[in-house]
């Protein structure tokens, strides 16, 4: 019986400490959430600037709904493309310094669409082994040849590029690695692209809004740009709303409008969301003080977690993973924190490699120094 098999597989997962379950929030996203009627101090959202429930964004969404209704009603290529979408695309492109941009409903869909539109049979994709799952799924769907290099290993990537006979070559990477918090070596990647006439798809889900002057992202952080770089940014993390965009040369965007299946065959996002995002983009641009505060919290946490029996992984970003290793131990620690009123998610395989279960601590500009001190104190208690 199929149900019996499914149940057996789930039971197996549970014994390995790998069963995934959802928790329902009874409050808006913020460092202070309510789950099952109990308040928690939370360190696991990607709402890095604390914009997800910002009053100005709530007002912009309300006004957007007044002006444009609730649903887009059709795909962008039919009759679902509205003025707020068009304005947001223009402003996003200008903000990240690219000629054009295209909105997608989610980052997952943007990655599926862009890889499949740019490469296919006879082409090759080169991918960092620790890339986000959406990039992994995207390259399988594209049916190009797939080569995965060890995390950050530019020598191995160079060898792969030298040996390839394929047509188009596309390197794809997280700019900030989502489960590790470290940065991809963008200048080296770009140099390899130039030497081998390859393209670079940069997934800046965790850099957009957070890194670089005015939060312009990883490219601004490194001070680099090139027409070879196709940039993906998400709008549900630091931007606090929902959605994603690709920014690139006009001809790339035109190609996506015609060939990216996850763009063509789906209903456009509500135009009111774009109205909220236009406001969010302003707050991001004016948010250098928020980013400075966030950077201060990162330094405070790293200093405070020294001397723990677990490795705090090398990262300067808001993603600060504490490497535990064993799945059950990671779950146990997460529960120990929960007993103390603190919410940190335990991240386990297959999201991360076997034997590298971790507490993925994320900081937000909405946290205070006292919040971070509470987390530090609780982790030291649990280490005893
Ligand atoms: C979150 C994330 C995505 C997916 O973006 P969504 O908008 O949540 O679908 C893609 N890439 C990376 C690196 C991410 O962290």
UniProtKB/TrEMBL annotation:
Signal peptide positions (record): none
EC number: 2.3.1.47
Similarity comment text for this entry: Belongs to the class-II pyridoxal-phosphate-dependent aminotransferase family. BioF subfamily.
Catalytic reaction(s) noted: 6-carboxyhexanoyl-[ACP] + L-alanine + H(+) = (8S)-8-amino-7-oxononanoate + holo-[ACP] + CO2
Pfam families: Aminotran_1_2 (PF00155)
UniProt organism field: Sideroxyarcus emersonii
Annotated pyridoxal 5'-phosphate binding sites: 107-108, 178, 206, 234
Matches recorded under PANTHER family: 8-AMINO-7-OXONONANOATE SYNTHASE, CLASS II AMINOTRANSFERASE/8-AMINO-7-OXONONANOATE SYNTHASE
Assembly information from the UniProt record: Homodimer.
Domain of life: Bacteria
Name by which UniProt lists this protein: 8-amino-7-oxononanoate synthase
SUPFAM superfamilies: PLP-dependent transferases
Pathways involved: Cofactor biosynthesis; biotin biosynthesis
Example GO molecular function: pyridoxal phosphate binding
Enzyme class name: transferase
Residues where substrate binds: 20, 132, 351
Protein purpose: Catalyzes the decarboxylative condensation of pimeloyl-[acyl-carrier protein] and L-alanine to produce 8-amino-7-oxononanoate (AON), [acyl-carrier protein], and carbon dioxide.
